[in-house]
Amino acid sequence: MPQVILLFSGKRKSGKDFLTDHLQKMLLDKCEVIKISKPIKSHWAKVKGLNLDELLSDGKYKEQYRLDMIQWSEEMRFKDYGCFCRSACQNAVDKPVWIVSDIRRKTDIQWFKENYSDVIRNIRITADDDTRKARGYNFQLGVDDVASECDLDDYNDWDLIINNGKNGQSLEEQISAILTLIQHVV
Ligand SMILES: Nc1ncnc2c1ncn2[C@@H]1O[C@H](COP(=O)(O)OP(=O)(O)OP(=O)(O)O)[C@@H](O)[C@H]1O
Question: Which residues of the chain have pLDDT under 70?
């Protein structure tokens, strides 16, 4: 059972993978990185005969299948909103800190609250549109206007908000703010 679970969310190309990768490099064997999208991508790779590692990494390949994966996973969530969270956590190694790098919906947060209650810390990563565009974001109908991208836009209960865009803090300051949230553990 983890002592703290960091739930990271943010819009496309806000820098979720970038920041959580850096955090992982600092915490090393004290942490386990969990991606809710992993069980989705594993299933999709198996059914379609695709390369799972390519699908999990940042790049064009992932973007090619994003819309299909969103639509399929939406149907699955409709039947059981916790199915992917549960599956991702079942396969996670027991470490003091869990880093969940791709929280996208209120029901994701709800599931973690129901199952791990007070060890959760909610972190929102923000970045302005220009910065996101410079990182490869392009508005796509069916991707950027649906729940997977917008559901947390009006959520307000964050333990920490990190500006990872223009005029944002330095990486050191960002990581230091996150470490403050888990200083009782590491
Ligand atoms: N603070 C930063 N400084 C420099 N480059 C950054 C920074 N944050 C993110 N990037 C770069 O921007 C790109 C997008 O970031 P990242 O993949 O972490 O976004 P994401 O929120 O995980 O996106 P997605 O939702 O599409 O998976 C990556 O190439 C990453 O290296």
Answer: none
State how far the alpha carbon of 65 is from the alpha carbons of 39, 70, 127, in Å. 15, 9, 24
55, 45 in Cβ contact below 8 A? yes
Name the residue with the closest Cα to ligand 1, atom 23.
13
Tokens of 91: 């396969």
Q: Was 16 annotated as part of a binding site?
A: yes
Where do the structural domains in the chain lie, given as residue ranges? 4-36+92-181
15 lines ligand 1 (CB under 6 A): yes
**Is 130 one of the annotated binding-site residues?**
no
CATH superfamily of 4-36+92-181: P-loop containing nucleotide triphosphate hydrolases (3.40.50.300)
Measured from the Cβ of residue 35, the count of other Cβ atoms closer than 10 Å reads 19
What confidence tens digit (pLDDT) does each residue in 97-115 have?
999 999 999 999 999 999 9
Say if ligand 1 is within 6 A of residue 74 CB.
no
pLDDT tens readout for residues 85-95: 999 999 999 99
Q: Is 97 helix (H, G, I), strand (E, B) or coil?
A: strand
Rounded Cα distance between 5 and 112, Å, is: 9
pLDDT at 59 (0 to 100): 78
Distance 186 CA to ligand 1 centre (A): 25
Annotation-wise, does 165 bind a ligand?
no
CA-nearest of 47, 146, 35 to 100 is 35
